[in-house]
Amino acid sequence: MKRIVIVGAGAVGSHIGALLTKHDQDITLLDYWHEHVEAIRREGVRLSGMSEADSQTIRVNAMHMAEAAQLAHQKPVDIAIVATKSYDTEWATMMIRPYLAADGFVVSLQNCINEERIAGIVGWGRTVGCIAARISVELYAPGQVRRQAPTGAAHHTVFRVGEIHGRVTPRVSRLAELLSLVDTAKVTTNLWGERWAKLSHNAMRNGVAAVTGMRGNDIDGDEAVRRFTIMLGAEAVQVGQALGYELEKVGKIDPRTLARADTDAQAYQAVEDLLVKERTDRVRGDLQRPSTGQDILKGRRTEIEFINGYVADQGRRLGIATPYNEKVTRLVNEVERGTIQPDPRHIKEIA
């Protein structure tokens, strides 16, 4: 059995770790939130979801980050899953590196594009990527994770595991098999296209939630705010295409259509119609809040520099204008500093 350590037991890490433990996998959660780790040790991870079957409490092995040195006296780590915020990637990878098995590897299971940061510490050969698409989980109290999207949806694959070079290898096949114990999973030969599509989706929603204070359904339901998100997505896809990536769907939106939405009225209308339909079809949308919006509510640092800020940085490097992504990055930074408060008017004035 593979020894798996999940570095960063936030919403995604705790959710996955608990369900893998339920299926008799050798899991250790490693986190720096003291109250969270202690709650898991006392009571386990309490999961709640959209059905009675999704609600359960699972006992999981959990360690404080300060106890990480104890790993030296335990079985080597075969798979280290980094599920931290992007700004914690380097130190988290550096911390777990000494405890890897000879053929052990590190998996980035994060919102943003961090494989290069991980490879800079453990090498490209020990780096694997994994996207969790539309998993919609929230750590709302110590030891308590709520999922706000249905599990096992036939029309949607949650986990996409891939090698940097795009080939299918035994280790990513095994990892996808393990994650299928949690939800739908597949091996992708297009990791970078998957990554940029997820980044584009996050670029449309996360910063907007932080600046406006709105939930997902409210964002899609407001015409002016919705227009702003479409412009964000168009810029993000244009940059990804210029980088040479073959983007997968951005949520349910065809990336080629989204890329034209800032100048083509027909493309814009197609994207808008899909977002409106998604809003009416979405279940429990009143509970959905993108992670950057959650960070603002919790008073935590956001990943905005690794989402919209990253799109803008790459756009500048390529000579592609990204005014909407630049603006939302600045606004989120102002909200973080407390110079402005979350309010939809910040977006509506621009849109």
TrEMBL record:
It catalyses: (R)-pantoate + NADP(+) = 2-dehydropantoate + NADPH + H(+). Gene3D superfamilies: N-(1-d-carboxylethyl)-l-norvaline Dehydrogenase, domain 2, NAD(P)-binding Rossmann-like Domain. Residues 190-336 form the Ketopantoate reductase C-terminal domain. Pathway: Cofactor biosynthesis; (R)-pantothenate biosynthesis; (R)-pantoate from 3-methyl-2-oxobutanoate: step 2/2. It is an enzyme of class 1 (oxidoreductase). It comes from the Bacteria. Residues 4-149 form the Ketopantoate reductase N-terminal domain. The keyword Oxidoreductase applies. Its EC number is 1.1.1.169. InterPro entries: 6-PGluconate_DH-like_C_sf, 6PGD_dom2, ApbA, Ketopantoate_reductase, KPA_reductase, KPR_N, NAD(P)-bd_dom_sf. Pfam families: ApbA, ApbA_C. The keyword Protein biosynthesis does not apply. Keywords: NADP, Oxidoreductase, Pantothenate biosynthesis. Belongs to the ketopantoate reductase family. This is 2-dehydropantoate 2-reductase. The lineage of its organism: Bacteria, Pseudomonadati, Pseudomonadota, Betaproteobacteria, Burkholderiales.
